[in-house]
Structure formats: C-alpha cells, structure tokens
Amino acid sequence: MKQPKLMTQRLRPVLPVSGRGLAAIVLMFVGSVVGFAQANEGGQNDPLHGQHILKPFRIIGNIYYVGLDNNTSYLITTPQGHIFIDPTYEGAVPLIRKSIEQLGFRPKDIKFVLNAHAHGDHVEGLAAFKELTGGKVLVMSGDAPAIADGGKSTSRNGQQQWRPVRVDKTLHDGDEVRLGGVTVVAHLTPGHTKGCTTWSTVAEENGRKYNVVFVCSVGVNAGTVLVGNTKYPEIAEDYKKSFSVLRSLPCDVFLASHGRFFHLEEKVKRMEQGGGSNPFIDPAGYQAYITESERLFQEALQKAQSAAPQRGSSPSGRGI
Questions:
Q1: How far apart are CA 281 and CA 89, in angstroms?
Q2: What integer pLDDT is reported at residue 189 of this predicted model?
C-alpha cells in the first residue's frame, strides 16, 4: 500500500447535477431543521447519550454510513486506505469499529480522520479513534486549539470536555485531502464553532458523478451569544459568511453532522424499501436546510440585538 499524501491545493468544483422531485422534497423538509444544543437524553451514564448505532450501509459510490441515528460518522474508501469523518462519542467508538468491519473494511486502513467541529458529541471519541486506527487527525485551524486542549478554551467554565488530541495537520479554507484518487475539500463555515468545517467530495455511481456535501452545522445552540460575545466577537458575521459559502457549493448528495438535518432515518427506510431513486440524492433538501437555518439564525440575531443594551444608553434606555 502506497504512503498517502496530504495535498493542500484548491479544487475546481464539478458542475452540479440536476435533482428530481425538488418541490416535493422541499415540502418534506420544512420545519425539521433545528438549531439548538444536542440533547443528552440518555444521561451521563449512557455512552451513546440516548442514541443507537445504525446498521452500516453504502450511501453512494465509495461513501458509507457507520454512525449513530443522529450523530453521524462516514467512511470514504479508496484503494490506498480510507478517510473517516466524525467519531462522535467515546462510547460509540467500539460500535463504529464493528460497523466498519461489518462492511468488510479494516479500521487500521483509515489514514485520515476528519471532523465537523469541536463539540463533544463529535470529538469526544477522537482520541480513542486515533488510537484505534493510527490515522492522522486533520483539523481546521479555528478548532485546532480546542481539539488539542480538550475543549478547555471554548468551554464556559474552562473545564476539559474530552481527551486532548494532538492534531497532525492544521487545515485552512479550501485545503484538500487526497488519497487513492479521492479528493475531499475542507470548506470553512464558521459560527457554530470558529473552525466549523463543511466537507465536499465527488462520488461516482453507475457512471455518473455526484457532488457530495457533508454540512458541518449552521445552527445556533441554546445559550450562544450572538451579540457582545467577547470570546468570539465576529460570530454573527461568520454565520452570515457560512450561509453564502453553503449556497455556493454544488450539492447533489446532502449529508451532515447530524442525521436530523437531512432526515437520515427516513431516507434509510426509503432505501431499504428499494424500487426508487437513491433518497440521499437530495439537492432540494440541501437548499431547504440552508434557507430554514438562515431564517432561524436571523430570528435569534434579532432577539439578541433587541435584548442588547444600546451603546451610549443606560439599561433603562435613557441617555446618560
């Protein structure tokens, strides 16, 4: 097996592929996008936090699903090794390993480990997954400090949230990860975190190429300070930039860091029923997600701006 190489060149996007049944898919999506903190339904003693592992399956081309029902994990396979996105919780790592093996692949063949963003439900298992696979951890520069210090720098109380992980390579917007003829591009879509990373690649199915987008998140979690955030002053502007970036990406296959963003379980059921087109080919769902997420963001921003004291005014609103 040849030694994999990490490339940091710019990718010229593949022309988008037209979708089918767009209007119907948009209607299915309305009201489903959420922008709040991930719930820990199972409590602190539940290693999967109220979730369960899904039966692994091939999404399209060389892209496989090996994650939980809401927190997602993806395996992108190549002849020279594999690329993995998001190990989720530490308690999920043994189950993810089993899913990878059930598909006929070896965790030790994973060469690069990527992540969506530096929140515990996505990176708590990163240290264990790196130990399992020996893969190199590649992180967008804005999230690299938090990954390395276990989340101390981003937590409200300064406490460690996950096992610190040594970052093997720091990425920047537009950098590419290349392996075995596959190119995965890192797109900086900050706001949810400073280094929130949306990934894109191209998959081939039945002689046709599809643009695949793994959305990080543009949701506004409960408690997020959008106005007067001393730790992240540019947070609101970053959100706005991220919506523009997402709209600029050609997308045929819509995937994301949370299954609820793209109706994962519903699409799995449709795929199991068979007889139709691949439900994960969903350009309309992608656009609907962006539109609804931006609406929720604007609502949250307006509320934050209304609640913030105006410069040069007393708390009561009278000039001082």
A1: 28
A2: 98
pLDDT in tens, 25-35: 333 333 333 33
Residues facing 215 on adjacent strands:
256
Single out the residue of 203, 136, 199 nearest to residue 167, CA to CA.
136
Segment 108-150, tens digit of pLDDT = 999 999 999 999 999 999 999 999 999 999 999 999 999 999 9
Would you call 210 helix, strand, or coil by DSSP? strand
**Among residues 285, 221, 286, which one has the least CA distance to residue 249?**
286
Task: Specify the 3-state DSSP secondary structure of 138.
Answer: strand
d(CA 94, CA 156): 30
Query: Whole-model pTM?
Result: 0.84
* Residue-range domains of the chain with CATH: 22-37+53-307 (3.60.15.10)
Q: What pLDDT sits at residue 311?
A: 55
